[in-house]
Amino acid sequence: MIETKKKAPLVSRSKRSDLAKREESLAYKLLIPTIIILLLIAIYPLGQVFVTSFTDRQFASGQETSFVGFENYRRLLSITIKELPPALDEETGDVKIDSDTGKVVYERPIQILPREPYRYREYKQFNFLGNRYVLGATDPDFIDAIRNTVTFTVISVFLELALGLGIALVVNSHFKGRGAIRASMLIPWAVITVVSARMWEWMLASNRVGFFNTLLYYLGLGDGQIAFLASSNLQLAAMVAVDVWKTTPFMALLLLAGLQTIPNELYEAGDIDGAGKIRQFITITLPLLKPAMAVALVFRTLDALRVFDVFQVLLGQSKYSMASYNYFQLIGNRNMGLASAIGVVIFLIIFVFAISYIKMLGVDSDEA
């Protein structure tokens, strides 16, 4: 006699629906403490910054606060472009020519840039289609801070990615003392940023007390008086060097974690098929390393966009990042409303970068 197995009773759709609703309700209840904490330590302060950015509030002052609308944002971000006409000789009415250079003398930007409703200052002059123009801004320092921060971010993150990938590939291979090398490579990242900035301040000193001036002098590449931190052409490069030295190990650590998730069997199959190391790197390593690389790029880019300590310690008020200029307005000028507007602008720029990275690199996709 053949025994037949009894089929398990099917759960009705209504019962499944009730179970799903209970699980969903439980999930929301478990999320309540997290939501409360986020409201207290993140969303509420952020909302306060947004509100303060529309006022003229002064930091540590008893002055009455007034609502000013978008005045702070207009003061920060207003720019204009004006054509510079040639200067005319008052006696002859002819165009002035510089006797030393033989070039046309143009009117001064201060005479061309508008003063109402805001006073514009010169930010940059440039030539276009044979004409000379001046770019004016109500706050050239903040426009320059945005340019400095974005340039610093792009260059430093690119170098950290390239160097970090190289280091990760090296320490991922098998060799004697690999563990000690992995531990020692994290030393720059473990050093407090202010401490590392002071170390680099000594090494970048503008005389032969500094390590780099001494090294370049003995190599015959300088006179030992290169002002790395005072020259406007070298300041940003110095900031990039400091950040790359400190943060490349962090990038290498993230990429190393990604490399260790790639099965060795794939490389063995590549060897059998006759694929060389470069071919394996392009067809195996890079595609499978994309998720870790995407996360590393997102973290480092967002961190670099809010860089503060390196600029503040090494450059002070000679060159700003967005965050250090925010600090200057809040502590130096005590203009809390304007500083809050700067904070909102920084937040929006970081938000745009984050969304762009996530969409471009597919961090939120199932493949990543």
From TrEMBL:
<protein>
    <submittedName>
        <fullName>Trehalose/maltose transport system permease protein</fullName>
    </submittedName>
</protein>
<keyword id="KW-0472">Membrane</keyword>
<keyword id="KW-0812">Transmembrane</keyword>
<dbReference type="GO" id="GO:0005886">
    <property type="term" value="C:plasma membrane"/>
</dbReference>
<feature type="transmembrane region" description="Helical">
    <location>
        <begin position="150"/>
        <end position="171"/>
    </location>
</feature>
<feature type="transmembrane region" description="Helical">
    <location>
        <begin position="26"/>
        <end position="47"/>
    </location>
</feature>
<dbReference type="InterPro" id="IPR000515">
    <property type="entry name" value="MetI-like"/>
</dbReference>
<dbReference type="Pfam" id="PF00528">
    <property type="entry name" value="BPD_transp_1"/>
</dbReference>
<feature type="transmembrane region" description="Helical">
    <location>
        <begin position="225"/>
        <end position="245"/>
    </location>
</feature>
<feature type="transmembrane region" description="Helical">
    <location>
        <begin position="183"/>
        <end position="205"/>
    </location>
</feature>
<keyword id="KW-1003">Cell membrane</keyword>
<feature type="transmembrane region" description="Helical">
    <location>
        <begin position="338"/>
        <end position="358"/>
    </location>
</feature>
<feature type="domain" description="ABC transmembrane type-1">
    <location>
        <begin position="146"/>
        <end position="357"/>
    </location>
</feature>
<keyword id="KW-1133">Transmembrane helix</keyword>
<keyword id="KW-0813">Transport</keyword>
<dbReference type="InterPro" id="IPR035906">
    <property type="entry name" value="MetI-like_sf"/>
</dbReference>
<dbReference type="GO" id="GO:0055085">
    <property type="term" value="P:transmembrane transport"/>
</dbReference>
<comment type="similarity">
    <text>Belongs to the binding-protein-dependent transport system permease family.</text>
</comment>
